[in-house]
Design a protein that fits this description.
The complex is a heterodimer of chains A (625) and B (364). Chain A is α+β, with helices and mostly antiparallel strands and 625 residues long. Chain A has 24 helices and 22 strands. Chain A has two domains: 188 residues, Penicillin-binding protein 2a (Domain 2), CATH 3.90.1310.10; 324 residues, DD-peptidase/beta-lactamase superfamily (Beta-lactamase, 3-Layer(aba) Sandwich). In chain A, helix 14 crosses helix 17. The two termini of chain B are 17 Å apart. The chains are: A alpha+beta (625), B mainly alpha (364). At the A-B interface, strand 1, helix 2 and helix 3 of A face strand 1, helix 2, helix 3, helix 8 and helix 11 of B.
Chain lengths: 625, 364
């Protein structure tokens, strides 16, 4: 029921003349009706022309008429070593996609066979994709082999499998056998979580970005800007006409401070071992070599990494994805002793003549602590002062010095050297290590520091942990008499002014002199001697597990083995290179010494070689066929 | 003191034809959007239609004479609403056309409701004429009153919608009786105004006119929409490709397939036969409105109905004309077919006005 008023309220609403008569307009209304008829006829004519008269033409236009945007992928920047030799390059890779508008399910078996795919899995993928719009193609395989490539090329004609579509893009070509793998890193498709984070928000789904190592650190430099080409394709997918073209902007080349010659020697030196090596130039912080073993093959990541490979890498107990050079945090052992010595000298707790009697061990805070040299009197060190304490790495001497100097003074000088903090190297994932102190213990364990704990820090054990790069950087700065440049891998990077410390040069010289003796005066590092070169260094054998646990038989020999450290620089007076080596389970620091020696020797041999006229550089890598 | 009329007196043919057209529209909206991000559009459209029917009922209930009596107030309110749109309207694709109601997803396109006000304005003005024909003063006065909202909407900018206001006036004035010489003067004035108007048009609007005259001059840009529309239409052939089978529509060659170019998609999927049926339905709708005009009890009612008829014819001519390439691309929707809340509401309100007049034709 619709309510209406009984009477119109017209007369009150307005004072207009009462005119009800509409007959005058009937003629004109009829005109309107005719006009409407004419309009409709005109419109229908329009449809008739398009749909009936020109039907063939328009159908053909529709079939032909597909504008497709083909992305022109920008090549990623190359990575070079300090001499301009190529470490990482790009190579063309092919991806095959299925266009779904003309996809026939009966072709899938043959396609799967030709591409070495599982036909059931392929069918399942096609089915999962059903709800997407028909014009979105489905990527079915990336990184085709040449056999698969020829299969696609020979079968994508309209009579056979017109739904096959080939895309060419660039994939990364990394050195073989995991050479410099942790430094270089690898690339991959940007993930969902990354897209949500601030750093990666500017990328879009499907883009290839650096995920690890320098590829990630300098992704913005390396990544180019993709271009695109808009083409008209016919219903068979063949390009008929190019509408417009935006060229891609290639990424920038990255030149590193790495020296491939030194890197090769270092990689060989650590072959089959678990550990790391860092070689850097203390005059400017440039990293000349960085190795971490065990390594992985980054070429697995060059196109999309297969699930099995990824699982193998992440579940390997030896952790090949860990960059030990910047992430392995272990007690430095005797390589810390020079710093304890310096702390003692600078703080006045000792001087160079301070002498301790080592009988193969000593009693400290009620416990007998052994010296590494053995407990028989014949082998004990006897009277030890600073120089000999460093050369022979006497534990009793350094227990005493550590005790006299005090944990907080030791911590102060350790931090001055850069321990307990990141070095700031341009790689993601660096770890800080630990420098124990009274404040640290209160903060982390809510307990006060017991003096009896200091002596272990005195010999580089206890809660103290360092990474190989910290060791190299610390000793390098010490060798430079208190000047620490920030370690970096990018050649020419602006790292700002170095950190400096006001150290008494006489004290530093005494310590360095001790380190000279380690190698050249029959000390623990004698296997690092290089004739004709003044090399200084320090060994370290750090206990990993307690004595009781080691003897209990519960662990394997490897698990119980000590960590072997070695650090050296040359020439002693004006050092050009400092090398630190970590060999997990290497037991004796002396065993790592030859590895460092080989790298140092390679450096000076190369220097000498280059000084000779007309020396050719050799290329280390050939691209695969 | 209300007297109730039975529902029999409503214009059922009008209502049924409208709903059939709406149903075809919903079908086409579904087909055009079912696998896109607008896939909820089709049932939203059903919601708009339902609300539209409610609005129609409301408009029918209020005696149109009361509405006509309130024209000055409604006019001022509508101008106010247009000004408000300038101030707080949402900026979408470089134009401010909608006002959002905060806290709800409702958006109102104020220029659509302006059409109702203008129909009522023209009807009242012309029904109060003291002369047999429209004099120059009346012409100018009415033109001025309509010119203000036209200018306001033009500045949003929304060329398509503001172009619908003057035709209402033109239809009304021609029925009221315009001396031939005035027609000539108006024609000359328009002819002179066009070059001036050219400078006022924005770049993209100018480009649209150029492309209208020669679509192939810019096939990848502005002529693109027209070319794609014609291909889609032609691709439909006699019987059409079938629902959801139109490749131009489904493969996204047809731009905005659920609003402005919805009829292109319809033509592709239902062919010439479907087109003739749909246009036939619109023709019947129009004739039904005209019949109500002829049977109107007074001039005001007649002008109201003819105003609605003129507007609907104009919309049809421009939108369907655009689809076949006879008209430039202007962005006005196809009544009851295109997706859109505000437009659906205004059309149902117009049908409500027609019903309004019809119901009161015996009260004398």
């Amino acid at each position: 029921m619709i309510p209406i008023e009984e009477q119109r309220s017209r007369p009150e609403a307005s004072g207009r003349i009462f005119k009800d008569d509409t007959r005058f307009a009937l003629g004109r209304i009829a005109v309107f009706q005719y006009a409407a008829v004419v309009t409709f006829l005109v419109l229908i004519t329009g449809f008739w022309i398009l749909q009936i008269r020109d039907r063939e033409f328009n159908s053909e236009m529709a079939e032909r008429n597909r504008v497709k945007t083909v992305p022109l992928l920008a090549p990623r920047g190359k990575i070079l070593d300090r001499d301009g030799r190529v470490i990482v390059d790009n190579q063309p890779t092919f991806t095959v996609r299925l266009t779904r508008e003309n996809l026939k399910m009966e072709h899938l078996d043959a396609i799967a066979a030709g591409l070495n795919l599982d036909p059931d899995e392929l069918r399942a993928r096609v089915k999962r994709f059903e709800n997407r719009p028909k014009y979105v193609p489905l990527t079915i395989k990336q990184g085709l082999t040449s056999a698969e490539l020829s299969f696609v090329e020979s079968h994508r004609d309209p009579e056979t499998f017109p739904e096959l579509e080939l895309l060419q893009s660039q994939g990364r070509l990394y050195p073989r056998n995991g050479f410099a793998a942790h430094v270089i890193g690898y690339v991959g498709e940007v993930s969902e979580q990354e897209l949500n984070s601030a750093d990666f928000a500017k990328y879009s789904q499907g883009e290839i970005v650096g995920k690890f190592g320098l590829e990630r650190q300098y992704n913005d430099t390396l990544i180019g800007v993709d271009g695109q080409r808009r083409v008209v394709v016919d219903s068979l997918g063949r390009e008929r006409q190019v509408l417009d073209n935006v060229d891609p902007t290639p990424g920038h080349t990255l030149q590193l401070t790495l020296d491939l010659d030194l890197q090769a020697v270092a990689e060989l030196g650590l072959e089959g071992k678990e550990g790391a090596l860092v070689a850097l130039d203390p005059r400017n912080g440039e990293v000349l070599a960085m190795v971490s073993h065990p390594a992985f093959d980054p070429n697995l990541f060059a196109t999309r990494i297969r699930n099995d490979d990824w699982k193998a890498l992440t579940s390997d107990p030896q952790n090949p994805l860990m960059n030990r050079a910047i992430q392995a945090q272990l007690a430095p052992g005797s390589t810390f002793k020079p710093i304890v010595a310096l702390a003692g000298l600078e703080s006045g707790a000792i001087d160079e003549n301070f002498t301790v009697h080592c009988a193969g061990g000593g009693v400290f805070y009620g416990h007998y602590r052994k010296c590494w040299v053995g407990s028989t009197a014949a082998r004990a060190h006897g009277a030890v002062s600073l120089h000999r304490g460093i050369v022979q790495s006497c534990d009793v001497y350094f227990y005493t010095v550590g005790d006299r100097t005090g944990i907080d003074t030791i911590a102060k000088y350790a931090e001055m050297m850069g321990y307990g903090k990141k070095t700031g190297i341009d790689l993601p994932g660096e770890m800080e290590g630990i420098v124990p102190s009274t404040k640290w213990k209160l903060r982390t364990q809510h307990e006060k520091w017991y003096a009896g704990e200091t002596i272990f820090v005195g010999i580089g054990q206890g809660a103290l942990t360092t990474t190989p790069i910290q060791v190299a950087s610390a000793i390098g700065g010490l060798a430079m008499h208190g000047v620490w440049y920030k370690p970096h891998l990018l050649k020419g990077a602006d790292v700002g002014p170095p950190r400096t410390a006001d150290l008494n040069p006489a004290n530093v010289d005494k310590v360095i002199s001790g380190m000279y003796g380690v190698i050249n005066e029959g000390g623990t590092g004698a296997s690092a001697i290089i004739p004709g070169l003044r090399v200084c260094g320090k060994t370290g054998s750090a206990q990993k597990v307690s004595n009781e646990l080691a003897k209990s038989g519960k662990l394997t020999k490897e698990e119980a083995a000590d960590t072997s450290w070695f650090v050296a620089f040359a020439p002693c007076e004006n050092p050009e290179i400092v090398v630190s080596v970590l060999w997990q389970n290497g037991v004796h620091g002396a065993l790592s010494a030859p590895i460092a020696r080989d790298v140092i020797k390679a450096y000076f041999d190369k220097k000498a070689r280059l000084a000779m006229p007309k020396m050719q550089q050799t290329a280390l890598f050939l691209k695969p066929e | 003191m209300a007297r109730y009329r039975s529902l029999r007196d409503l214009d059922w043919p009008l209502l049924i034809i409208s709903l059939v057209i709406c149903a075809l529209g919903v079908l086409q909206i579904y087909s055009a959007t079912h696998d896109t991000k607008w896939h909820t559009a089709w049932w939203k459209q059903i919601l708009w239609i339902a609300i539209g029917l409610g609005l129609m009922w409301i408009v029918t209930s209020i005696d149109y004479h009361t509405l006509l009596g309130q024209v000055p107030i409604l006019y001022c309110l509508s101008i106010g609403a247009l000004l408000l749109t300038f101030a707080v309207g949402d900026m979408v694709f470089h134009s401010r056309r909608w006002i959002s109601i905060p806290g709800t997803p409702i958006q109102i396109q104020t220029s659509e409701f302006e059409k109702i006000v203008i129909i009522l304005l023209v009807a009242r003005y012309l029904s109060e004429l003291k002369t047999e024909q429209v004099g120059m003063r009346d012409l100018l006065k009415l033109g001025g009153l309509i010119g203000i909202p036209t200018a306001l909407v033009f500045m949003q900018p929304d060329f398509g919608t503001c172009a619908t206001y003057f035709p209402i006036m033109a239809g009304g004035v021609l029925i009221a009786g315009l001396p031939w010489r005035y027609l000539a003067v108006v024609a000359i004035a328009c002819g002179l105004a066009m070059p001036a108007g050219w400078f006022l048009l924005k770049d993209y609007q100018k480009a649209r006119l150029v492309t209208f005259i020669d679509p192939s001059s810019d096939p990848k840009g502005r002529g693109y929409q027209v070319i794609q529309s014609k291909i889609a239409v032609g691709h439909g052939g006699i019987w059409g490709r079938g629902v959801t089978q139109g490749t131009q529509t489904q493969l996204r060659f047809l731009p905005v397939p659920h609003t402005d170019f919805i009829f292109s998609g319809f033509a592709e999927e239902h062919g010439f036969v479907g087109v003739v049926v749909a246009l036939g339905l619109y023709f019947l709708l129009l004739m039904q409105v005209v019949q109500n005009a002829q049977a109107a009890p007074d001039r005001a009612g007649m002008y109201v109905c003819m105003g609605v008829a003129t507007l609907l014819l104009f919309h049809l001519a421009v939108n369907v004309g655009m689809v076949v390439g006879y008209m430039p691309v202007t962005g006005i929707p196809l009544p009851l077919f295109s997706y859109g809340g505000s437009n659906t509401f205004s059309v149902f309100m117009m049908l409500g006005l027609v019903n309004n007049v019809r119901l009161r034709r015996f009260v004398n």
